[in-house]
Amino acid sequence: MKGLLSIKPDRVRVSLGSAVVLGLIEGVVDAKPTTAYLLMYNVGRCSANCSFCPQARASTARADMLSRVTWPDFSINDVIEKIRRAFNSGLIGRVCIQALNYPGVQEDIVYLSARIRSSSSVPISVSCQPLKRDEMVRLAEAGVERVSIALDAATEDIFSRVKGELANGPYRWSSHWSALKEAVEVFGRGMVTTHLIAGLGESEEDFILTMQKCHDMGVFPAVFAFTPIPGTIMAKHPRPQIDHYRRIQVAHYLITRGISRYENMVFRDGRLVDFGLPKDQLTKIVMSGKPFLTSGCPGCNRPYYNESPKGPIYNYPRQPTPEEIADIMRQIGLT
Q: I need a labelling partner for 34 at 20 to 30 A (CA). Which of 62, 88, 268, 274 fits?
């Protein structure tokens, strides 16, 4: 096995939209990704078993899918050269490397990151399972600017059910939080991200409290809407109600910008009923459209990762139109 793990990867998956922007394939995209999204290539599925993920060990979904996006594979050499050109011409502002969990993945991530860095100064983010401190240090030394360790679930109970013990998965709530803490120590406050998926069964209060905890420890919580994918364990689980998600987005914007805090907000039976600031200030923020843009690392717009371009759009990859903002105002109850 040791010999097998020393083999360097020669292929990498690229999200379909990124592949078009990079010029790896021909096509037309409704909204161009501003980050090049890569997925480590592995023959076989992830060793984890997250109930919502097409790559999970027990999933029967297509092997080239992550969320609702397809990820064709290409030669690493070709991808690195296309990234260099796209970054130099201003087509992309970041690379995001997403990793499955498989033996040797840490070495593969370091290898790919170092190869990209040797060719370009493009900022690199890595989204991966909890790593040991020395593994995080190696990522930083290879040129990785930011790291993301996905909690996904907003509560320990839901975490256990969808990706931990009760899901027959390898992950544990406490070890994820410990890894996030160590990541902040290695990469610095504001340079670590986590993913939180709304709609797994949590209340708005649960979700917002976890966002506040992340923000206070120097971790940026990127917010996703649950997306049911055929072939996954949660294929029949419903998507979150759009008004539920809009309130979470506004709370996220207020917390991560230091405008309001969980403690200032009011909840009734788990539902957010007061954001903790005057209505005129809240209305101005909502009408800006900014709370509803994709949240993540700088330069991340993740087009249609959670939804079809036909809508409803949960995370906007570009500025919402006046008509869309009017709909959002109604969804939040400000009109």
A: 62
Give the whole-angstrom CA distance, residue 286 versus residue 254. 11
Conformational region of residue 43, where left means phi above 0, alpha means psi within -120 to 50, and beta covers everything else? beta
Cis amide linkage into residue 103, ω under 30° from 0: no
Tokens of 91: 């087509």
Q: What global pTM score does this model have?
A: 0.94
Length of the chain as a residue count: 335
User: Which pair of structure tokens corresponds to residue 110?
Assistant: 């370091």
| Element at 94 (helix H, strand E) | strand 94-98
Assign a CATH topology to domain 2-239: TIM Barrel (3.20.20)
- pLDDT, one tens digit per residue, over 286-304 is 999 999 999 999 999 988 8
Q: Report CA-CA distances (Å) from 132 to 98, 106, 113, 283.
A: 17, 10, 17, 44
Boundaries of every domain in the chain: 2-239
